[in-house]
Amino acid sequence: LLKHSSHALFTFIDYARCNQKTSGDEKPVSLIDLLDQDWDFETQKGNPVIDTNCLLSVLITDAQLTTADSNVKPSERNARYDGVITFGKSLTIIIENKPRSSNVWPDQLKPSRKNLADTTVYRHPIVLEWKEIIKQLNHLLHLPTISGYEKIMIEDFLSFVDDSFPFLNPFDSLHQCKRN
Questions:
Q1: Which residues fall within 8 angstroms of residue 63, CB to CB, at 6 or more apart?
Q2: DSSP symbol at 168
Q3: Residue 171 to residue 173: CA distance in whole angstroms
Q4: Which residue, 30, 63, 53, is CA-closest to 132?
Q5: What residue spans of the chain are helical by DSSP H?
Q6: Which residues of the chain have pLDDT under 50?
Q7: Per residue in 75-103, is it b (16+ CB within 10 Å) or e — as a string?
Q8: Residue 47: which region, alpha, beta or left (left: phi > 0; alpha: psi -120 to 50)?
Q9: Which of 16, 22, 76, 77 is deepest in the core (most CB within 10 A)?
Q10: Could you tell me if 47 and 112 are in contact, meaning their C-beta atoms sit under 8 angstroms apart?
Q11: 55-82: pLDDT as tens digits
């Protein structure tokens, strides 16, 4: 969805940026700085070559975690990332998706040292909650600037969540309950 919907991508990056904790000399991710970069999206990648200036680890799950406050640093593990978004030579975002926070293993938020070039790794992971992502996707459906194909993809994605992971829905209104 992020690869084919610029609205969804920009909303995702903005949500991640708003939840980013920085320390010391780290500067927050800037959406403006990423716009003129080449973008590359990959899923289920095992130990890809990461040669960007910075790396940011993102966890998407059903609840905030206290264990996610641990430092992110390169690890000796063999990694398989659920998602990898690369913005030119500037930034790589590795994404770990765990629909249930009880299944999170903190080392999954750490990048593999293998194939990691001279890249600065942000010390704190970003934890995003599915209910907020779904809420934002529902809001996107009502934008006048959204194209027909983007709307169809977002609706299909939300239907997939309704059918396979209904517990991730925010259920802020009766309309969102649908068949549940």
A1: 101, 129
A2: G
A3: 5
A4: 63
A5: 6-18, 31-34, 130-140, 148-164, 174-177
A6: none
A7: beeebebbbbbbbeebbbbbbbebeebee
A8: left
A9: 16
A10: yes
A11: 999 999 998 776 555 688 888 888 899 9
